[in-house]
Specification:
- By secondary structure, this protein is of the alpha+beta class.
- Helix content is about 55%, strand content about 5%.
- The chain has a five-stranded mixed beta sheet.
- The termini are far apart.
- The structure holds protoporphyrin IX containing FE.
Length: about 500
């Protein structure tokens, strides 16, 4: 009997392909069906179909999609949580403090969701994007770099950059209303550049810098890609999307950071020898990272340090810029509250034009309430996401491992049970006597639990220094009412605000 070798090979190959597909598809299919069945009892905001999920009802633009989710959380305020399927990806939407607590207080659910993958080319697996043991070890190493005494060293940079901002704003006094978003963003960028790397990019005076431009472009490109699933596969991103421009920016950003690291690494060796000289130098996060060691006494490589410095650059400037803009906008809408801030500034500084000190910061209690109330109404990170890492129970519903959870501070912060008359701008809510009984997970602009924002004290300090300096010089008036700001344009929608300044 003769055997047809060609036929045999075809059968073997065919069999191998079918076996591989079975191994790959059946478990995924089984997991999909399991999640579908288990999540079914959770409230859905519309009809859900197999494979497409709720995709047919979603708006395509990023701002519109965000708005839609917010509308669902309003409409289903009494439901404990929502489920949505984006194609075959299941999500639960959390906007009640008890349920947010289940997720954020757990040491298990620390993995970031799929959308963070698009940050990897720029930030690698830095603190924001890493997980497991790598994240634990890095977090341990980096926490001391945000110690109070180290933050105090950054005060001077914040004061200097605020003064430059004031000089730039002065040119607008008494003129047509103008948009100050870019002014604050560039100030925040200069502050983070100097404090993270010890390097000035002078973006306030030179916004044409290649580095500054690359930071803007890449942030924009990544945000857009996260919202457009058709650009998720690399080939589509490079063929039809902004992949090539993304890589061009990446090259500029990585080589800038690596050059600064190399330069600093050289300097560290020098200043270690000449300790008198090192005292005079300003320390940056980067200097501390160069000296930091993990539990085994190992130092970070230059590439590890680059990941962390780039992460600070990404997380540490447009978040604070948006927060400062909103605070100023709200004060510009509410003259009485602005007056209270001015009174506090008068009490602390009088007529003096001296720099803000650490002592002053402690005294600016009402300004701190304003900052918190602004972050309540307009959190710089209005939603963030995690992957559920093991089966858990939220509000009586079983949530299987692998489901994505979206936490929506924007809606959570508007829970009328904890914030009566939630749309009202009322900084007094954050006075200790009014906030001590509040649920600890109902106000989470910096997230909470193990993976909370490592830079939150830095951020509040920066906001206090910049806002107090600006408000010691000017009175602001917002030229649009809140209803007029078009939320659909952008989730930060701050870019369209207009201010009038009086000295
Ligand atoms: C108003 C300003 C800021 C806000 C509202 C804010 C908010 C947040 C939020 C919500 C998270 C959690 C994100 C997530 O789970 O996906 C986060 C994480 C983080 N933030 Fe901030 N942030 C601010 C400023 C800063 C600054 C100034 C820095 C650095 C200097 C910074 C560095 C980080 C880092 C490294 C993480 C990741 C922490 C980890 O996973 O261990 N942030 N931030």
């Amino acid at each position: 009997m003769s055997v047809d070798v060609g036929l045999l090979l075809t059968w073997l190959l065919g069999g191998a392909i079918i076996a591989a597909l079975t191994v790959l598809i059946i478990p995924s299919l089984a997991s999909y069906v399991h999640k579908w069945r288990v999540l079914w009892p959770v409230t859905a905001p519309g009809p859900t179909f197999p494979i497409v999920g709720n995709a047919l009802q979603f708006k395509s633009g990023g701002g519109e999609f965000f708005n839609q989710i917010i509308q669902y959380t309003n409409e289903f305020r009494d439901a404990p949580l929502l489920r949505i399927w984006v194609g075959v990806l299941p999500f639960v939407v959390l906007y009640h403090p008890e349920n947010v607590e289940v997720l954020l207080s757990s040491s298990k659910h620390i993995d970031k969701s799929y959308a963070y993958k698009f940050l990897h080319p720029w930030l690698g697996k830095g603190l924001l994007t890493s997980t497991g043991d790598k994240w634990r070890s890095r977090r341990k190493m980096l926490t001391p770099t945000f110690h109070f005494s180290i933050l105090a060293e950054f005060l001077e940079v914040m004061n200097e950059q605020s003064e430059i901002l004031v000089e730039k704003l002065r040119k607008q006094v008494g003129k047509e209303p103008f948009n100050c978003f870019n002014y604050f963003t560039l100030c925040a960028l200069d502050i983070i550049c100097e404090t993270a790397m010890g390097k000035s990019v002078y973006s306030q005076s030179n916004s044409d810098s290649e580095y500054v431009h690359a930071i803007y472009r890449i942030s924009d490109i990544i945000h857009k890609r996260q919202k457009m699933p058709w650009f998720w596969p690399d080939f589509a991103f490079y063929l039809f999307g902004e992949g090539r421009e993304h890589d061009k920016c990446l090259k500029i950003l990585h080589s800038f950071t690596l050059d600064v690291i190399a330069e600093k690494a050289g300097n560290i060796a020098y200043t270690d020898i000449d300790s008198k000289d090192s005292k005079k130098k300003r320390r940056a996060f980067l200097d501390m990272l160069l000296n930091a060691t993990d539990e085994n006494g190992e130092r970070l490589s230059n590439e590890d340090i680059r990941e962390e410095v780039d992460t600070f650059m990404f997380e540490g400037h447009d978040t604070t810029a948006a927060a400062m803009n909103w605070a100023l906008y709200l004060l510009g809408c509410y003259p009485e509250e602005q007056k209270k801030v001015q009174n506090e500034l008068n009490e602390v500084f009088g007529n003096s034009s001296r720099h803000v000190s650490m002592d002053d910061l402690k005294k600016l209690k009402y300004l701190e309430c304003v900052i918190k109330e602004s972050l309540r109404l307009f959190p710089s990170v209005p939603m963030f996401a995690r992957t559920i890492c093991e089966d858990c129970n939220i509000a009586g519903h079983e949530i299987p491992k692998g489901v994505n959870a979206i936490i929506i501070p924007y809606s959570l912060h508007r829970d009328p049970k904890w914030f009566p008359d939630p749309e009202k701008f009322n900084p007094e809510r954050f006075l200790p006597e009014n906030s001590s009984q509040r649920h600890p997970f109902v106000f989470v602009p910096f997230s909470a639990g193990l993976r909370n924002c490592i830079g939150q004290r830095f951020a509040i300090m920066e906001e206090k220094v910049v806002l107090s300096t600006v408000l010691r010089h000017f009175q602001v008036e917002s030229k649009q009412r809140r209803e007029e700001l078009d939320m659909l344009e952008s989730s930060f929608f701050v870019q369209r605000m207009e201010f009038g300044l009086n000295s």
